[in-house]
Every structure is written in C-alpha cells, then in structure tokens.
Design brief:
alpha/beta, 2-enoyl-CoA Hydratase, Chain A, domain 1, 3 domains, 8-stranded mixed β-sheet, 7-stranded mixed β-sheet, 18% strand, globular
Length: 532
C-alpha cells in the first residue's frame, strides 16, 4: 500500500483562515441554491400545492429508490441573468429500481414551467450526459412550452431536444415521459418522442395547440379534455401507454416501467470500497483564499481516494504536475493535479505520456485544476513550451477514456484547456466555491491592456493619462474578477455544479458509477502528430 501521509496542520492559523474563507463562500453558495429551491416564490408554490400537486423535487424524491442520493446538475443555471435561478428545470442523476437514470423535471411554479434559453441549455446538457453514459431518461413533464417573449433564442436550437430524444431511443437508451400537467405546443413532442408515456387523469394536457389556438386556426370549438386530456390519449389517440389516477400512481407506474427495462451496466460492480485514511472535512482548510499561494494537491487526493492509496507517476520529473493511479469508490482512476500552478515543458510532456498510459489501460482520468496556465518568457519559448503544451492538449483532445474535472483553485488560460476544461468535453466538470477561471488573472489582464494602451499612445506621440489608466485597470479587474467566479460560470452552464469540497468524493463516485454504465475503450493511437 502506498498510503499518502499528510503534512496538513489543522491547528495552524493558515488552516483556520482558509477554512473560514471557504465556509463564507459556502454560505453564499447556499443562499443562491436556496433561490433555485424556492422556484417561482411562495405565492406560486402555494398556488401549485392548492391544486393538489407535488413540487418538482418532491416528484423526484418519490421516484428515487429510498435512501439513495440524487446528484443535481446545473442547479445555478441562469444565475446572473434575468431569469429565475435554476432555469425552471431540475436535472440530475438518481437511482430508480436499481437503475441509474438521468431525470429531468419541469418546475411549474416558474412561469408554468415554460422553457427559457437557460432551460434549453440545461436540458441539452442533461441529454448529452445521458447519451455519453447510456443513462435511461425520465422526463417529469409539466410545462407550457417555450417562454414566448424569448422565442427568438429558443425556437431554432430548441429542436435539439426532440432530436436528442429520438437519437437516445435509436441508441437503445430508454426514454420515459411522465406527464403531470400541461405539455403543449413543442412540449407535446416530449411524450410524443419518448419510448414510454404515463399520463395523469384529469391533469395531463398534451396537444400541439390548445382550444384558443384551435379556435383561431380552424374555427373549431373544443375543450382541454377532448383535445388533449389523459383519458383521450389513453383511449383514443394511443399516445398514453399508461393511465394514472393521480401523481403518486404515475410515479409508481414510472418505477415499474424502469423495473421492466432490463437495462444493464456495461461493467461489473467495482472493487471493494475503502474510505480515505484522512478526514474529508479537512478539505475545507487546504486551498488558500488567495489563489496565488500554492498548495499541495496530494492533500486533496489523500482525502478523496480509497484508502488514501496513491501510486505517483514520475514524482521527481515535472513536479508542478502530480500524476498517479488510485481507486475512487472502487473504480480505477488516473489523476492529474496541478501542484504549483504553472505548467512547464516537463509537466506537459509528463501529462501527455500519462494520458497515453491511461488510454492503453482503459482507465478514466480525473483532472484537479489549480493552474495559471503554461509558462511564458524567452527562456521557455526557446525551450519549446508551445509545442510541449500543444502535446498535452493534443493528448487530452484525442483521449477516449472518460474524463472528470474539478476546479479546486485557479484555472486560467490554455492551462484550463490542457487540464480538460469544458471545451474538451469531460463527462462531468464541477467547481469548488473558491475556484476561478478566465483567460488570465484580473490583475494580469488589466495590466496587459494598460501596457498595450500606453505603447499605442507612445507610438502616436500622444501623452498618456495615468489617472484614466488607473480607473480603467480598476474597472477591468473588477469585471474580470466577477466573471471568473464559479457562480457566474455555473450560471452559464460552463460546469455541472459548484460543490462543497467535502462532497467531492461522493460526487465523483456517483459520476464514475454513471460512466461505467456505458462501454468505453481508450485510444490506442490516433493522437495526431506530437511535435517533438
């Protein structure tokens, strides 16, 4: 056993300061999560309950197997926009009748569950996760369709939702729709394109056009029930496969549908699971609030992997990047973790070799980010940092084993790419509350703009206004700082959620289990040309 020892002093002032700062950020995060949980607010929640209906998360809770976790995805979607935090949609991974499923649920307390641009992005991301990991999809539907004032941003890309449902079905990934209320206009295609459809008596309303639209279009008089009620679809149109007497019955029937899917994981159960030898609660005190201060990522690894057992690869070479092998909740993983922020040529070459080895062995990769990017300067440019950094990015881009990413601290510039940022399609990407991600740090970016402006003035023979320069730098720093924060990035779905560091092991365990539902095979070549 190669159990990592810990040098973390939990009685030090630094540890206490780091912990206090992160707890403050977690409190702020909880406040934002509470906005998503509140849905449309007390007025609309009470109106919904007054109709005898369950809330979106209550429906999910009844659907899941008792005492099993639900990994909610993108809970901060739409944060910082004009739309409600959460984007009127709940998505996540949970276990139903022993089967890991991707679950989506409209929140009808937010504008009747209507989809806005961020709801669409969130739904498409959920479908992407389901497809990559072969997770059955369960849609808990109650939506008035598109949020019409924003139709220009929804209509064209919105067709992807229906395309995805048909492609999931064609790939043998089951899709189930449970209709609790309105599912109108484009929303009618959710049950229309699902493999299995359950509708609730006197509540489900599924039609392309409601009575007012039918009247305007054809002059025909109709009512909700005869036009698109659950009874009509169960007896006449055949759209409903199962007819439920109430919401609880609909959820019971959905569970029975999943139980009969005969859906199997591609891989056997993992090896025996051993908890870390070091307390995960101590993760709160490892990362400094000032991300310029380095920390040892082995302290993080020791608190998330099984038995804190880690076999480090090339420990003396390229020491700014820690690489090695471990198990997490019984699943083998290769880990790449930034140690001192900057990536040099040696780290880049080490990473490329390690990624190739993981692909040879079919082992998923976990990237733990704390990087300011690749090193700059004459010595490093002459030493080939561009081609060596490109080698690492090439390896990440063409690797075929599943990737997981966690932003612990900084994730700047091309280092974000080399460590498998969002653009490089990790199966899942999460951030800690103190993480930051941007082209570069706020001070560096503001400084670069200042230098360029000063040089431009000099080239034109014009005087330079130092007071205006200081004001510009302050404004740019503030803007970049706000746009680097995890809640800002999570609101735009650049990650799958901002998580409590203490939950990292659990979150990654759920993700690894989901990943092993689908078969995968590492690249045995095909990495393109490595510039040596």
């Amino acid at each position: 056993m190669t159990v990592l020892a810990s040098a973390l002093d939990t009685r030090s002032d630094d540890y206490a300061a780091h912990r206090a700062a992160l707890l403050g950020k977690l409190a702020a995060l909880d406040t934002e999560h509470a906005k998503a949980l509140a849905g449309g607010g007390e007025k609309y929640v009470q109106r919904h309950r007054g109709r005898g209906k369950l809330l979106a998360r209550e429906r999910i809770e009844l659907l899941l197997d008792p005492d099993t976790p639900f990994l909610e995805l993108s809970p901060l979607a739409a944060w910082g926009s004009d739309y409600t935090v959460g984007a009127s949609l709940v998505t996540g991974i949970g276990v139903v009748e022993g089967v890991e499923c991707l679950i989506t649920a409209n929140d009808p307390t937010v504008r009747g569950g209507a989809s806005n641009p961020w709801s669409l992005k969130k739904a498409l991301r959920a479908n992407e996760i389901a497809f990559a990991n072969r997770l059955p999809c369960i849609s808990l539907v109650e939506s008035g369709g598109a949020d019409l004032p924003s139709q220009k941003e929804i209509f064209i890309p919105g067709g992807g939702i229906f395309r995805d449902l048909t492609r999931l079905s064609a790939a043998g990934i089951p899709t189930v729709a449970v209709v609790f209320g309105n599912s109108t206009a484009g929303g009618a295609y959710i049950p229309g394109m699902s493999d299995h459809v359950i509708m609730v008596k006197e509540r489900a309303k599924v039609f392309l056009g409601g009575p007012p639209l039918v009247k305007m279009a054809t002059g025909e008089e109709s009512d909700d029930e005869s036009l698109g009620g659950a009874g009509m679809h169960a007896r006449t149109s055949g759209l409903a496969d199962y007819f439920a007497v109430d919401e609880q019955d609909a959820i019971r029937q959905a569970r029975r549908v999943v139980a009969r899917l005969n859906h199997r994981k591609a891989y056997r159960d993992p090896a025996a699971v051993e908890p870390p030898a070091h307390d995960p609660d101590e993760l709160l005190g490892i990362v400094p609030d000032d991300l310029k201060i380095p920390f040892d990522p082995r302290e993080v690894i020791a608190r998330i992997v099984d038995g804190s057992d880690f076999d480090e690869f090339k420990p003396l070479y390229g020491a700014s990047l820690v690489t090695g092998w471990a198990r997490l909740h019984g699943y083998p993983v290769g880990i790449l973790a930034n140690a001192r922020g900057v990536l040099f040529s040696a780290e880049s070459q080490k990473a490329a070799q390690f990624i190739q080895l993981a692909n040879q062995r079919d082992i998923p990769l976990l990237f733990l980010h704390n990087t300011t990017g690749y090193m700059v300067g004459k010595e490093y440019e002459q030493g080939g940092i561009i081609k060596h950094g490109s080698m690492m990015i090439n390896a990440v881009s063409n690797s075929r084993v599943p990737h997981l990413s966690v932003l612990m601290g900084a994730s700047y510039g091309a280092g974000h790419y080399g460590m498998c940022g969002r653009a490089y399609d990790p199966r899942f990407l999460f951030a800690w509350p103190g993480a930051k991600s941007a082209v570069m740090g706020p001070q560096q970016l503001a400084g670069v703009l200042s230098i360029v402006a000063r040089q431009s003035a000099a080239a034109k023979g014009q005087p330079y206004d130092d007071d205006a320069d200081a004001a510009l730098r302050a404004m740019v720093e503030q803007q970049i700082e706000s746009e680097s924060l995890p809640m800002f990035l999570s609101g735009r779905l650049y990650d799958d959620g901002v998580i409590d560091p203490r939950d990292t092991r659990t979150v990654l365990g759920i993700c690894l289990s989901a990943i092993h539902t689908a078969p995968y095979e590492g690249a045995r070549g095909g990495f393109g040309v490595f510039r040596m």
